[in-house]
Design brief:
- This protein is an alpha+beta fold.
- It has 26 helices and 24 strands.
- Strands 4-5-10-7-9-8 form a six-stranded mixed barrel.
- A hairpin with a 5-residue loop joins strand 8 (about 165-170) and strand 9 (about 175-185).
- Helix 10 runs parallel beside helix 22, helix 12 (about 340-375) packs across helix 13 and helix 24 (about 715-755) packs antiparallel against helix 25.
Length: about 800
Amino acid sequence: MIKNYLLITLRSLMKNKVFILINVFGMGIAIACCIVAYVNWDFSEGWDRAQLNAEKIYRVQFNREFQGKHERFGMAPMPLGNHVKQNFKDVSKVVRYISSYTDIRIGEEIFGTDFVFVDSGFFDLFSYKLKYGAFSDFHDKSKVFISDELAKKYFNREDVVGKTITQVVLQKDGKRILKEFTIGGVFQQQPFNSSFRFDAVSLFDNFWDINLDPDINETSWKRWNTLFLEIKDPSRVAEVTRQLQQYIEPQNKAREDFKISSFYLENFKGMMKHNREDPRVNNDWLRGGIPQEAVLVPAIMAGLLLLLACFNFTNTSIAISSRRLKEIGLRKVMGGMRSQLIVQFLGENLLLCFLGLVAGLLMAEWLVPAYDSLWPWLELKLSYTENAGFLLFLIALLSITAIIAGGYPSFYITSFEPVSILKGTAKFGGTNWFTRFLLAGQFIISLLAIIMGVAFYNNGEFQKNYDLGFATHGVISVWVNNEGAFNTYRDALASNKDIDMIAGTKHHIATSFYNDPIKYESIIREVDIMEVGDNYFEVMDMKLISGRGFQKDSETDRKESVLVTEDFVKQFGWKDTPIGKRVVWMDTVQFYVVGVIKNVYARALWEPIQPLMVRYTSPDKYQQLVVKASPKKLAEINAFMEKKWKEVFPNTQYNGRMIDQELQETNDINKNVVIMFGFLGFFAALMTGIGLFTLVSLNIVKKMKEIGVRKVLGASLTNIAAVINFEFIVNLGIATVIGGGLGYFASNWLMDSIWEYYLKLGVISLSVSVIAMIVIAVLSVGYKTVSTASLNPTKTLRDE
């Protein structure tokens, strides 16, 4: 019997090769997208999965209430770790953590890397695999542990215990601190979905040897680090949290301008996800995971494509089954049971879904790396043997797909009575409420995808040309760390005539600024603060709206003059001229506004614009050198700057960055989302067109004689087209209203969740999307309609 079922299945498949290939291809695309969505979700859910003690680890964080706004911070005061270690009996381990990007010299080669300083209990608290060396050596201040990736990159082998590396730190006076370490161990680098991805780690005590900030010390409540605690008994977490509150007072006395409301403990398990919840944690100095939208959107897209493939599969299956009515009738007359027919048709559909799964797995081998390449925070890999959850997902996906796609056709076509089938009175074909629902679903999903693609494309163009208040092209910044290095490097660059201007600055819009409360009379606002040097405004194309700029070498301006942005003026409610207004910083320092500049979007378009105050700094405070040049020549100039850097600073790595790189994330997200929705829109439209063609074909089969009669009576092509397609036109109209509404709200919701400033979907974009969907529908049914209406009526009316 099984052999006969297989033979019947193969014959049916061979008779309908084109439809089968279309179904398998469409199902394969949808399944490949589902695989991408699953791997992407698994990557996010597996964040810090390698940390076996995560449930016992807590990070000290704090809440802050400021002007009715609740804020969360992932840092702790510098002295707090020692206080907890000495006074909290419920805490078994205390680990402080500070990360620093630094230059490392191995032999004659200089490179930059993430170098962290931690307390000795770090490797006891966190799960790391040590490939070479012994964890006991980490207690030695002269030792450093490095990752296997770093060892292979610079030593060409992993077993490098006993080798030496030198940390190079550029001081403010131009001298360099050269701190030599012996490699005490080589650890296996953490997976990409981990909070830790540093390459070198040493004892916390070594941090004080290279610290250049006199305000940072073991007892300063004004400075911060990351603090981890091990609490073995979960029932004691509340008590430890209560004890932490006693340190609010010394913290707030030290920073009266930045008062916190409470300390709390965040469990390391799930910390990444919790810290991304609203309000998102500030100063989270670990790798913070991937945005929730980056998990949700691919899953929704994959689900929509799978539904489309299933809808199309169902419609096509019904169309194919119309050719097998006599087979069904004969088998029932010969004693075949309906349950046997259902099993056979379900088996055939399961076979097709399995072929779609195979096609999907093959496509996923290309699609997963392609999607991974779009986002810098991902490292997706397909693994069929190491991930049991993935195999279970594939089995569930196959089963669900087969049931959704093949269930209705299997039960529907086996329900006819053999007498009506063999007498030719069985009404099969055409459309019913279910096929109309499927088609409407296809229309809605396709229109939704097209609208999203158009919306994100237009938004990308809008944001690309958005005026951020500063130059977004033609600028390169380099960290020099002190005045001496600035002067030396500036003189070395002076010979290049393609460089339009050079400026020195302490802070730079693209890389550094700080945020502090500023007071005007009784009003207090938190504002961004920058300290800049000569020519900075000209290099960055910042626009002065009123008042004046800083006067070169003016000590008065350095001590008490500031420039503020339009939003700064708005935040303090100044209705009259802001020039001459007095503001206070850190309760005692007074500044006077001498000019107003155009708004500056220092955080690009992700977050609301913040008021900005700009101070004039002296050359001895310079930390960065900023160059302005023609964008067309910027690559050549960057190469020239790197060459000169190596000549004047051979012991440090060149760190120049174009401002385009700092702003690249916005452009990349826009481009990649357009690619994603363009991909969805294309295949959704393709499958909708195929589904519509199939249903029109079914409808024509049912109305062939009616069409013939109408032609004999003189009906026009337009009249016949209306007869064939009237209900599809109504269906399309209803789906357009629903899909248009969903597309409008979905696109604006998604963009609002990503950016603060974006282009909302407009009437024109919505109209273009609807027209595109209508064109697809017309092309799908046009040929079949015209060819049917052109048939000789004698062929449709003949009854033998």
